[in-house]
Amino acid sequence: MLLKDIVYKLSLNAIGDIDNLDVSGIGSLKAAKENEISFAAGHKYAKQLFDTKACAVIMDYESLKAELPSDVKFVILDSKNPYLSFAEVTQIFKSVSYEKNKIPSDNFEGRYFIGKTSNKRENTVIFPGVFIGEYSSIGANCRIMSGAYIGNNVIIGNNVLIYPNVTIYDNSKIGNDCIIHAGAIIGSDGFGFARGKSGYVKIIHTGYAELEDNVEIGANTTIDRGAVDYTRIGAGTKIDNLVQIAHNVIIGKNCVIAAQVGIAGSTEIGDNVTMGGQVGIAGHIEVGNNVMIAAQSGVSGNIKDGEILSGSPAFAIKEWRNSAVLFKKLPELYKKLKEISKTKD
Questions:
Q1: Which domains, from first to last, does the chain contain?
Q2: Contact (Cβ atoms closer than 8 angstroms) between residue 174 and residue 156
Q3: Cis bond upstream, residue 313 (ω within 30)
Q4: CA atoms of 149 and 168, how far apart (whole Å)
Q5: pLDDT at 188
Q6: Catalytic positions, please?
Q7: How far apart are CA 197 and CA 317, in angstroms?
């Protein structure tokens, strides 16, 4: 692509000559080739600007101009949010790559199974080895890759990308523009058992799982169906790999959930919530809007809007940081206490 086309699409301010400059891809500051774009997200990357071979670098120019080399050899693409601009550049290159590598769906006809009562709309590509049950509906412009299993009475919206070996159980609902990565499972039974005299009696889960529009689900993540109602992931929410979401959990809009998070049943998560890796959330609690939970935190009670928590059990991050400092000093404090005790004796 021409660099000037990228600059125009993203409304960036270019410092340097962009005429007739071809760009073939994206790279890190360390590894970028001479015809690739890179980005500097902050001051810690300033030293790498001296050696990078990238032809253009996205950065906040005002923030980094004092740390630039005197003989800048790349075009500066000025952005107040370099990370967001970088994300938008990746979208541009993805769309170009997709058009170049479009797979002819004619080759796949008859090499997958779709129930007689199910249907798919125009421009949807179903790869060989896919199984789609009865009474299911697949929207337009979807790509469903090999090994995917889609059960009965499943509704999938438009522009959905389903990677290999995804399993979508009966009655699940998938909105528009969703991405589900390899090995993810949507709508499996929740972990529900009642203890009887002779052992545990399984609770049959008759609900369903729903992803609203523009949700992304990471590889090998599991989202259980509701026991009697539903489990719901709100629009715009992004979930990393290896996350467990139990039955009847409701997650709000535009949340970000990192790898290995576990959310127990019937918990409600608000909008714009961020969870670091390995966070554990107990069941039947409420987490408010705009909450941030640091990695490896354990949450066992309700959280109000806007709180930032850390630790296990989790509490306000400012108090947690103070406690962490004191915890490291405990051996020293204990030694001093023993010395004081001996003095008194």
A1: 3-100 (3.40.1390.10), 107-153 (no CATH), 166-313 (2.160.10.10)
A2: yes
A3: yes
A4: 6
A5: 97
A6: 247
A7: 45
Q: Could you read off the pLDDT of 295-332 as tens digits, one per residue?
A: 999 999 999 999 999 998 998 888 888 888 888 888 88
Over the stretch 145-198, which tens digit does the pLDDT of each residue have? 999 999 999 999 999 999 999 999 999 999 999 999 999 999 999 999 999 999
Contact 231, 225 (CB under 8 A): yes
Report d(CA 238, CA 259) in Å as an integer.
Answer: 11
Asked if residue 189 lies in contact with residue 171, where contact means CB atoms within 8 angstroms, the answer is no
What whole-number percentage of the chain has pLDDT above 70? 96
Give every CB contact of residue 292 below 8 A, 6+ residues apart in sequence: 273, 274, 307, 308, 309, 317
Q: Please name the residues in contact with 322: beta carbons below 8 A apart, sequence gap of 6 or more.
A: none
| Rounded distance between C-alpha atoms, residue 279 and residue 311, angstroms | 9
